[in-house]
């Protein structure tokens, strides 16, 4: 009995040390790293107008093109073109684009009639669009994305300078009722919080192709997507992970610069999308995988040791110790909610803060399952 008690105390001590260490790491991330974006205030810059090419790859996107393309073609911005790559669509996209071309002279339609893409994904179509673009500055988005204002192009391109070659924008998902929608939007907010924060610290590791800009020279100097062409996804994050430096990247988060997409309607469809995104993370630079992995692992271990300690302390009736453990949890939760609230304000996101701690716990349990599933089943679609 004596040895059993000592063993229990050693386990208790080890668990509490690990719990405290994870707490410290989480505080460093939330206040030291994520706080960089949460309290970020961009300095105003004079307006500039440079010729840009907006590139959209579309495969059977008739309804989305009909809805969103006019909003892109009617932006309040001079001297731009819109390149739409119609990638082997078998719906009525071709007829719709022909009609738009007659109305909008700055629309450049590139049609891929035969599937000569030997790899899965849209990288071939995107590379064709980039090659067809008339201008050096490129803004990328998807057919299902809606710009939130007619100043979208103006706000994004205004960040380009002699040094800035990449501009990271924000693309969220539309608000709908239901838990899945909250889950999707919370995930999008937390992802944006991470890549924006790290970018402000000179550690840019990804961008989102629904709202992303870079110049054509950068694309050609990096030899396009050749280093990861065999991966179906990654036309945005893997490319940015490769070419971003400490000095060549800028973020743009004004509400006029946002785009928005319709979220997935079923959990299964969303899981397929998540698995596709996760499949590229293994190819990030080692330093990027480390800084992302430490946060995810410390988050998982924080919750794991929390529940372990509460059960163990309850069994030995150590209620004062329970108060200490719960106090650390509350500090971490309040810190998270403050940072998430500030982030939501910047990204114009609503109606998600109060349940954010529960959503965070869901992802603590879900993320390892998605990663494990990707290892077991490696199969991704074009989109």
Secondary-structure blueprint of this entry?
Blueprint: H1 2-38, E1 52-58, H2 62-73, E2 80-87, H3 93-103, E3 107-112, H4 123-132, E4 137-142, E5 145-147, H5 152-157, E6 166-168, E7 171-173, H6 179-200, E8 212-215, H7 216-221, H8 237-243, E9 249-251, E10 259-261, H9 267-281, H10 286-315, H11 319-347, H12 356-376
Parallel strand pairs: 1-2, 1-4, 2-3, 6-9, 7-10
Antiparallel strand pairs: 4-8, 5-10, 6-8
Helix pairs in contact: 1-6, 1-10, 1-11, 2-3, 6-12, 9-12, 10-11
Please provide a written account of the structure.
The protein has 383 residues and is an alpha/beta fold. It folds into 2 domains: 11-39 and 288-376, no CATH class; 52-266, Spore Coat Polysaccharide Biosynthesis Protein SpsA, Chain A (Alpha-Beta Complex). Helices cover 54% and strands 12% of the residues. It has 12 helices and 10 strands. Strands 3-2-1-4-8-6-9 form a 7-stranded mixed beta sheet, with helices on both faces. Helix 2 links the parallel strand 1 (52-58) and strand 2 (80-87). Helix 10 runs antiparallel to helix 11. The N and C termini lie far apart (60 Å). Residues 1-7 and 379-383 have low confidence and may be disordered.
Assign the CATH class of the largest domain: Alpha Beta
* Topology-level CATH name of the largest domain: Spore Coat Polysaccharide Biosynthesis Protein SpsA, Chain A
Structural class: alpha/beta
Report the biggest beta sheet as strand number plus sense, adding barrel if it closes: 7 strands, mixed
| Mean of all residue-level pLDDT scores | 90
Continuous helix count = 12
Q: Identify the CATH architecture of the largest domain.
A: Alpha-Beta Complex
Q: What would you report as the Rg, rounded to the nearest angstrom?
A: 23 Å
Point out poorly predicted stretches.
Answer: 1-7, 379-383
- Beta-strand residue percentage: 5-15%
What is the H/E order? HEHEHEHEEHEEHEHHEEHHHH
């Amino acid at each position: 009995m004596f040895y059993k008690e000592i063993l229990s105390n050693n386990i208790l001590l080890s668990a509490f040390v690990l719990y405290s260490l994870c707490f410290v790491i989480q505080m460093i991330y939330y206040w030291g790293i994520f706080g960089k974006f949460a309290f970020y205030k961009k300095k105003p810059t004079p307006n500039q107008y440079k010729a840009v090419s907006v590139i959209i790859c579309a495969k059977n996107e008739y309804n989305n093109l009909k809805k969103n393309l006019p909003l892109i073609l009617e932006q309040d911005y001079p001297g731009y073109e819109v390149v739409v790559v119609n990638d082997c669509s078998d719906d009525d996209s071709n007829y719709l684009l022909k009609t738009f071309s007659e109305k909008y002279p700055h629309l450049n339609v590139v049609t891929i009639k035969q599937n000569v893409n030997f790899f899965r994904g849209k990288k071939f179509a995107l590379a064709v669009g980039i090659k067809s673009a008339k201008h050096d500055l490129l803004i990328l988005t998807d057919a299902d994305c809606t710009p939130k204002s007619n100043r979208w192009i103006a706000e994004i391109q205004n960040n380009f300078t002699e040094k800035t070659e990449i501009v990271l924008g924000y693309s969220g998902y539309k608000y709908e009722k239901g838990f899945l929608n909250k889950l999707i939007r919370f995930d999008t907010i937390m992802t944006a919080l991470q890549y924006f924060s790290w970018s402000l610290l000179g550690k840019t590791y990804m961008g989102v192709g629904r709202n992303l800009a870079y110049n054509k020279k950068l694309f050609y100097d990096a030899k396009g997507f050749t280093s990861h062409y065999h991966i179906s996804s990654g036309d945005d994050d893997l490319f940015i992970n490769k070419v971003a430096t400490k000095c060549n990247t800028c973020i743009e988060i004004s509400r006029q610069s946002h785009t928005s997409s319709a979220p997935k309607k079923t959990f299964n469809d969303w899981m397929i999308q998540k698995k596709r995104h996760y499949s590229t993370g293994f190819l990030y630079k080692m330093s990027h995988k480390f800084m992302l992995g430490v946060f995810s692992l410390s988050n998982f271990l924080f919750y794991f040791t929390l529940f372990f300690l509460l059960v163990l302390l309850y069994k030995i009736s150590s209620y004062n110790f329970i108060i200490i453990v719960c106090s650390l949890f509350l500090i971490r939760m309040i810190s998270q909610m403050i940072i998430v609230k500030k982030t939501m304000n910047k990204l114009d996101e609503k109606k998600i803060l109060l349940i954010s701690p529960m959503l965070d716990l869901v992802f603590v349990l879900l993320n390892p399952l998605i990663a494990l599933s990707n290892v077991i089943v490696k199969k991704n679609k074009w989109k």
